[in-house]
Specification:
The protein has 50 residues and is mainly alpha-helical. Helix content is 92%, strand content 0%.
């Protein structure tokens, strides 16, 4: 196997691992995003009332 082929296969392998880890920890990404989205209207209203 040439160095280019080896690098290609290793790169693909790392991408698969990354995809799997993102799927496993998806809730850790979604929760903070939802918290920020739900807080935006509250912040907007707080500044509008002043």
């Amino acid at each position: 196997m040439s160095n280019q082929q080896l690098a290609f296969h290793l790169n693909r392998f790392y991408k698969e691992i990354l995809k799997q880890q993102v799927r496993e920890h998806q809730h850790l990404f979604i929760s903070p995003i939802l918290l920020v989205l739900f807080a935006i209207p509250h912040v907007i209203l707080a500044f509008c009332i002043k």
